[in-house]
Structure formats: C-alpha cells, structure tokens
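Audit log entry. Action: structure prediction of a protein-small molecule complex. Ligand: ribulose-5-phosphate. The ligand was supplied as SMILES and no pocket hint was given, so placement is left entirely to the predictor. Protonation state taken as written. Sequence taken verbatim from the request; no trimming, no tag removal. Recorded inputs:
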Amino acid sequence: MPDNGLSSQTVAQAALSPIEASKRLAAYTAVDHHVKPEHTIIGIGSGMSLQSARKNPGILSRSDYALGSTVPYVVERIVQQGVEANKKRVFIPTGFQSKQLIVEASLNLGDVDEYPSIDVTIDGADEVDSNLNCIKGGGACHLREKVLAEAAKTFIVVADYRKNAELLGTNWAPGVPVEVVPFAYAKVLRQLRDVLGSPNATLRMAIKKAGPVVTDNGNFVIDAPFDQEKMQDPSKILTQIKLLTGVVEVGLFCGLAKAAYFGNQDGTVTVRREDGTTSQVTA
Ligand SMILES: O=C(CO)[C@H](O)[C@H](O)COP(=O)(O)O
C-alpha cells in the first residue's frame, strides 16, 4: 500500500470502541457494495480529517462529536481499493472538512460544478427513519450534502446503530438544522417558533468562537426541534420550512437515499433499502 498516511496507522484501528467499530463496519460494507470499478465520480460526505483524528485519537470515541466521524472510514476503504482503482476517479467533497479528507488521502479532488452527475455519494446522517428520511446538518454542511445527494445516481447513508430510528427526533434531540442567510435569521427563528410549531428553535452557537456557527457558505444555522406528530411526515415540514424566505436549505433529506447501512454492536450491518426491504449482513 502506498505511503499516503493511511496504511500503517489507520484511524485508531487497534483500539476502536464498539461505536467506532460499528461506524467502520457500516462504511466498509457500503463501499464494498456500492463503489465499483466502473464508478469514476464519487461524492464524499462530511468527514473529519484523518490527520486531525490521528493527532487526537480520543476525538473519534467522543459520542458528542457528531461532525462526520463515519465518513473517514469510507475514505479509508476506498483507499484500500488501491492506486490503480482510484487513479481514474474524481472525488467531490461536501465541504471544507471533506475536502481535507480527500486531499490527505491523495485522492483526486473535483467539484460538483465541474461534475454535476455523480455515480455514487456516500454520507453520514444524524438520524434515519424507517422510510430512509434523514436528519442531516449536525456539522452544518447540509446544503452541500444535499446538492451531492441529489447529484448522485446512488445516494447511500452510513451510520452506527444509534442513528437507526423508526421516527426522526427519537435519539437526535437538537432538531432539524435550518441554514439561513444571516440577514433573515431573526425573522425565520420567529416563524419557526410561532408559525411552524417549534417553540424551542435556537440559533446554533459556535464553540471556541464567539457568536453563531457560520457555515461554509457564510450562513447561520437554526436547530428546530418538532414534536413526534410533525416528524411523522418529514416531507411536509421540509416544504413548510423551505418556503420561509431567507431559508437556504433544510437538513431533512426525504426520498433521496437508495439505502442506509447501520453498523451494529454484534458485528453485523443492517441494510435498509428504498424499496422497504431490510437485511442483516455479516462482513
Ligand atoms: O450531517 C452531517 C454533517 O452535516 C453528518 O453526516 C452527520 O453529523 C454524521 O456524523 P457522524 O458520522 O459523526 O455520525
């Protein structure tokens, strides 16, 4: 294997916690099933830099660090397919973090404006419901993530077992991420609270920076939790939020995923597909 930084010290390989092991299992299985030799344009979802992960190995086992900790294993598996398989491929990132991941892995970098038709995009999710609707945007990257999901012929979600839910909002408490232009944030916040029924909607504040989180697109993010009744029909609430002037994108991905791969603690992977079928796969 080439010395691209991934061969000898893969992400905390030796000491993976059960959750980390399940993320890797999901990612590896999804790559094995969906990244084939004929696929040349690949969308890479949000994932933290492998260099950062290696400098701070504990970061991957922090359960609160929901900022793209599964996708690095996708890249790791793709790299394992070898230099020959990857030299003709172009990899499209969903943001700054994902771009770093591609560059550090010595894979060819492209952009979606150059390659608007992607063979397969693989990304993580904050939660997935029984109909493969997803909440995304825990890392505030959901605008580009949705562009890459829609641009792909096949959009695949990878996650650990905690993200596998009947209903969105079961385990993911912060709510639906809503990217909004800064000028409109106060008006959109008020509408989410008073009109759309999310009284606890809040502007997402940065950690280690004073003030709000600013996305890769220069916008703010509001997290809007909705009750179970509203989350029964995510497409409806998606449409209602999207129609608020000033909203750029909503972190509800409805009808986009072809399949979701969930790594389980027992070493199996649950695969749920858009046709409603589910199977357990042993890696
Ligand atoms: O939507 C996302 C970022 O906007 C991520 O895909 C999501 O947060 C998944 O994180 P992890 O892989 O750590 O579970």
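Audit: result stored. Residues 196 and 240 are 8 Å apart (CA to CA). The first strand starts at residue 41 and ends at 44.
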